[in-house]
Amino acid sequence: MSLFLWIFPVLCFILMSPANAAMQDETDTEQTSGNWSWWPSWRPTSMSLLKSAEAKILACLQNDVWSRFVTLPNQNRIWTLKVTNKSVRKHKDQAAQTPLVMVHGFGGGVGLWIRNLDALSCSRTVYAFDLLGFGRSSRPSFPSDASLAEEQFITSIEQWRQSLGLERMILLGHSLGGYLATSYTIQYPERVSHLILVDAWGFPERPQPQLQGSGGQGSEVKRVSPPRWVKALVSLFSFFNPLAIIRAAGPWGPGLVNRFRPDFKRKFEDLFDDDTMTQYIYHCNAQNPSGEVGFKAMSESLGWAKKPMVQRVHLLPPSMPVSMLYGALSWVESSTGNTVAQIRGKSPTSVMLIEEASHHVYADQPEEFNRVVESICNTVD
Q1: Cα 272 vs. chain centroid, distance in angstroms?
Q2: β pairing state of 77-84 and 126-129
Q3: Rounded CA separation 132/272 (Å)
Q4: Which interval of the chain is the signal sequence (predicted)?
Q5: What are phi and psi of 120, to 5 degrees?
Q6: How distant, in Å, are the alpha carbons of 22, 31, 118, 202, 245 from that of 337?
Q7: Is the pLDDT assigned to residue 110 strictly greater than 80?
Q8: Does 345 score more than 50 pLDDT?
Q9: Cβ atoms 291, 133 nearer than 8 A
């Protein structure tokens, strides 16, 4: 019943919204014109507002920040930060260290690393970028095929690396970023010195429901089937992009983010006493959907990956070090890390639990997260 109490008002909100007629355009990545030319004004957002929200966040950094768009061969642009320690930037030591590259998760952007960039750039250069289709990066069309959508993400990362001239990197990915970082490492292992996965999405296979009598030994295991209304709502929402509700909410979108994700405000309340972080999240995701469309293509209903990464981790080179970090309070099952370790056998694979942390480990327990990541990086050089 609790699921109904959450889904029903959201459904009503969508259906009652005057923007509902434009929901058909949510699968497109370009703004339409003509009859729906008023649609962008319905949403109180713009790339300029996103830029302002991000600038307020990045103003908290103490180290030197180099920021610009990296243009790819196809003219797509990747918004990129390069953070260096101002006290050692003129020394050769930091330049000699393997850089750390941080890849955010679904619906995120470089601003979410605000608690980590200074600490992790003390002894080595840190790069963070907005994934193609997210944040301030270009928002091209994505194919509906899971493999092609994934390949578009991976190609953009490799072209980004080439444009910056990075020979090798320590690659860290959170959630969706962890999934993509693993896929990238499988394809370009010579470019990765160590793979760090933080509460990575898309690894486990979707569990198959057990039929009656499948438990063996004469036991009966009942198949739990969700009510019809739940199936109907899941089917209905499958036609829309995951964050369509934020855009459909129009001027109420920022308030909706505050209501349903108050944790983002709490995680950064010692840095900002206002809605800076939730405004940032809103503006990241109220733009025309692009990477979100790619994610939808790669996922099944309820967020399972169509191509679970546990089926491919054996393709990682046996010598590739992999560190898997999980929040002890996260919805992501840390047991998946143990499964990966078993699959990889004697290959260097470690699984660590960060206490008192949920899915956003880096923001829930930043000091412990930074300590663990720095320790991992120091094993490289």
Answers
A1: 22
A2: antiparallel
A3: 28
A4: 1-21
A5: -80, -15
A6: 41, 41, 28, 12, 32
A7: yes
A8: yes
A9: yes
Pairing of strands 169-174, 77-84: unpaired
CB 326 within 8 A of CB 352: yes
248-275 pLDDT, tens digit each: 888 898 888 888 888 888 899 999 989 9
Token digits of residue 134:
């997210």
Rounded CA gap, 49 and 69, in Å? 17
Burial 159-180 (b: 16+ CB within 10 A, else e): bbbeebeeeebbbbbbbbbbbb
Residue closest to 286 by CA, chosen among 44, 57, 78: 44
Q: What burial class does residue 30 get, using C-beta atoms within 10 Å of its C-beta: 0-12 exposed, 13-18 middle, 19+ buried? A: exposed
Q: What is the pTM of this model?
A: 0.84
**pLDDT tens digits, residue range 269-309?**
999 989 999 999 999 999 999 999 999 999 987 679 999 99
Sorted by sequence, the CB contacts under 8 Å of residue 105 that are 6+ apart come out as 173, 174, 175, 176, 177, 178, 201
Cα separation values, 302 from 51, 99, 189, 230, 296, Å:
31, 35, 31, 12, 11
Could you give the strand order of the β-sheet that contains 169-174, starting from the edge strand earlier in sequence? 64-71, 77-84, 126-129, 100-103, 169-174, 192-198, 322-327, 349-354
